[in-house]
Specification:
The protein contains 16 helices and 31 strands. The structure holds flavin-adenine dinucleotide.
């Protein structure tokens, strides 16, 4: 760190602005990839109460890959069933349907709920552990200016983004409670009903004190500073879309009630009093999302927040759930918001400053998407920025953040549009009531939306990291105000179809689905996903087929010879004297019988590398065989892979499938990695 007059000046590879879920996920990648990074937040503490609580299947898989999935899964309340409550012919609400909350069989993890504060705690602990304490959220810091030197953006070693930071006082960094005299903490300071234009004021106040500023030169900046994103505004970008007229209140209470489904997730549509969503939470808490019919937006389109109190929200809930009785003694948190459905016009500037999370998409919280999609944005971006900053991957992969996540953001808004309308709408009285919402329609939309909501339906389009034909590009990705799409590796539709047919159950562009396999050396069953850790490495998964058949063994040996050759992408991606699997890990799943196969006899060394200090690597070769205690033996079947011949799959560091080919198509695999990685690095 140097000083420029009295101003501190320093360089950093990655500066993350905002330590909500999106910022923490980005920081987590930096910690796991060993990138020199900083993360700042204008607030002096993390969240402790309220805000987001729904964790979807894909987010839990991601947490597991970083090593804290078990903490979230064990502590959270699991949502097993969704109950629909609607007015009967007499106008009184009654349970009309029950469905599983998450589609059965999609993932080992189903939707569960836990407050955002705990999720942030898990991130903080994980970041500290993996960065060995070098990366921690620096609080009470606000950016004052951001400039990108366009003449340096193509220089890999440059730090073209200059950000001036302001250090705030304790008082300046403490959010004001909006409702004076309330005993319960509210979340209104983050609500869409409050204009939070305090940033300029905070900067002015801090300018009057000495030594409160510093200048940071960053290679990359990731703006994760929420819906009112300062980063977005300072780049001159906008969120486009609309606010709806629906005002919603949220209460986290321990309810005292005779409503029979209070420990189930429920959508309650009353005949005349609006709708209510019941979300049973950890520690006896229940979250109620309540439509506030008493509060309506004014001519400017905004509702008067002074009219909203926990009492008003609660009395609306009582009316909707009547004739059941509802009261409480303990309220943990409350807020109110107006649904705004908006997507960012731009996701990055010069591929040097990126926007993620609520900074590029806002929508209603009831479908439990915001925190999940926000974290998944930076889960997509973090490894790319990290590997490029370290000189492992080419800068060209950064354009895929925009092409991949802009589409997801648009899909999210479309999903939210449908879900909010159906949830906020009045139930149809009968089949002739065209204005009202048919409860059958609501249920069907919920079931259809469920796949999207889990985060498991994401299917990334063609690019340098997903080998698909151009024709598969969804046109939506390139239309309207969207920025352009990413560079695409050329492949014909025929060639793609042939490759995909080798493993129809592993769709190129989607996350690698889980199967159970056994470790060849000790017979222990593993969920194979557990082996796809988020450590910044690509993986080549060799489905080696039946290695006990001589012709197949020969194919495997030829593939391994090519891998081990000095000119292969594997060798060329590895710095001299570094372990061979430091950038790309090779994992094998074969289909011969475990007890007839020997690791050292039947598998070439490159599949279980030798280290002079710790011997052979016994954690790289797995078998698709039945375990003593937990079944299994159907991985090839599930993936649709020929048990004799196998195939090869390249998986990105975020577990999305990038390439599939035959064992003979080494050239194709080489080309895939040549398009992504900086080969023959110096150190
Ligand atoms: P944020 O969480 O808003 O974090 C932004 C961070 O940036 C904050 O820490 C803020 O202090 C900081 N910051 C802001 N400006 C600056 C600046 N200028 N300088 C430095 N730091 C700055 N989502 C779900 O997935 N599931 C749910 O069940 C769910 N329920 C919700 C319920 C409610 C009532 C609400 C309000 C939201 C809910 N959400 C839910 C949405 C979810 O909270 C957000 O989508 C999510 O927090 C977005 O994460 P983020 O990191 O992008 O932004």
């Amino acid at each position: 760190m140097a000083t420029n007059g009295s101003v501190l000046e320093s360089n950093v590879d990655v500066l993350i602005i905002g330590a909500g879920p999106a910022g923490m996920m980005a920081a987590c990648w930096m910690a796991h990839c060993g990138v020199k990074a900083r993360i700042i937040d204008k607030r002096n503490s993390k969240i402790f109460y309220g805000q987001a609580d729904g964790l979807q299947s894909r987010s839990l898989e991601i947490f597991e890959s970083f090593g804290f999935g078990d903490r979230a899964w064990n502590e959270a309340n699991h949502l097993i069933e969704m109950c629909m409550w609607n007015p009967g012919p007499d106008g009184v609400i009654r349970r009309s349907d029950r469905i599983p909350d998450t589609i059965v069989g999609l993932s080992r993890f189903q939707e569960c709920v836990l407050n955002q504060g705990r999720v942030e705690r898990f991130f903080l602990d994980n970041i500290k552990k993996y960065s060995k304490g070098t990366l921690q959220v620096e609080r009470a810091i606000l950016p004052e200016s951001l400039e990108v030197d366009a003449s340096k953006v193509d220089d890999d070693s440059a730090h073209p983004v200059t950000v001036k930071l302001r250090h705030l006082s304790e008082e300046e960094s403490t959010p004001q409670q909006q409702v004076n005299g309330s005993k319960v903490s509210d979340g209104l300071f983050r609500s869409s009903l409050v204009y939070e234009d305090d940033e300029e004021d905070l900067i002015r106040k801090s300018q009057s004190r000495a030594e409160t500023s510093e200048i940071v030169h960053a290679k990359y900046v990731i703006g994760c500073d929420g819906a009112r994103s300062w980063t977005r505004r300072s780049l001159g970008f906008e969120l486009l879309g609309e606010a709806t007229d629906f005002i919603w209140g949220v209460l986290d209470i321990i309810p005292i009630t005779d409503f029979p489904d209070i420990r189930m997730r429920c959508a309650v549509h009353s005949a005349e009093n609006g709708s209510l969503m019941v979300i049973p939470r950890e520690n006896k808490l229940v979250r109620l999302y309540i439509q506030l019919k008493e509060v309506t937006p004014d001519a400017s389109g905004r509702a008067d927040r002074s009219k909203i109190t926990p009492e008003i929200i609660f009395s609306a809930a009582q009316k909707i759930i009547s004739p059941y009785k509802l009261s409480y003694e303990y309220c943990n948190w409350w807020t109110a918001y107006q649904i705004g459905q908006r997507v960012g016009t731009h996701f990055d500037a010069h591929e040097r400053v990126f926007l993620a999370g609520d900074a590029v998409h806002t929508h209603s919280p009831k479908a439990g998407q915001g925190m999940n999609v926000s974290m998944q944005d930076t889960y997509n971006l973090g490894w790319k920025v990290g590997l490029v900053a370290k000189g492992i991957a080419k800068r060209s992969i950064l354009s895929t953040y925009r092409s991949e996540r802009q589409q997801v953001a648009q899909d999210l808004i479309d999903f939210d549009h449908r879900f909010s309308r159906l949830f906020s709408g009045k139930p149809a009285k009968d089949i002739m009531d065209a204005e009202g919402v048919s409860m059958e329609e609501f249920k069907n939309a919920f079931i259809k939306g469920n796949m999207f909501a889990t985060g498991l339906s994401v299917n990334y389009g063609p690019s340098s990291i997903v080998t698909k034909p151009d024709t598969a590009v969804d046109e939506k990705a390139n239309k309207g105000n969207h920025q352009g799409s990413a560079a695409v590796t050329r492949i014909s539709a025929d060639a793609y179809a042939k490759r995909q047919a080798l493993a129809p159950g592993i769709p190129i562009g989607m996350r690698f689905d889980n199967v159970q396999v056994l470790n060849q050396s000790d017979g222990r069953p593993w969920h194979f996903q557990q082996k796809l850790k988020s450590d910044g490495r690509f993986r080549v998964i060799l489905f080696a087929g039946d290695v006990l058949s001589a012709p197949q063994k020969n194919r495997v040996e030829k593939f391994c010879d090519a891998l081990a050759s000095p000119t292969s992408f594997l060798r060329a991606a590895t710095p001299p004297s570094a372990p061979v699997d430091i950038v790309i890990e090779i994992l094998t799943i074969h289909s011969s019988r475990r007890v007839e196969t020997e690791l050292l006899r039947d598998f070439p060394e490159i599949l279980h590398p030798f280290d002079a200090h710790v011997g052979w690597d016994y954690d790289k070769v797995f078998v698709d065989d039945v375990s003593y205690h937990e079944g299994g033996g159907d991985a090839y079947f599930k993936y649709g892979i020929d048990r004799e011949r196998g195939c090869v799959v390249a998986v990105r560091p975020d577990q999305y499938v990038g390439w599939i080919g035959e064992l003979e198509d080494f050239e194709g695999l080489q080309e895939y990695f040549e398009g992504i990685l900086v080969l023959n690095p110096k150190a």
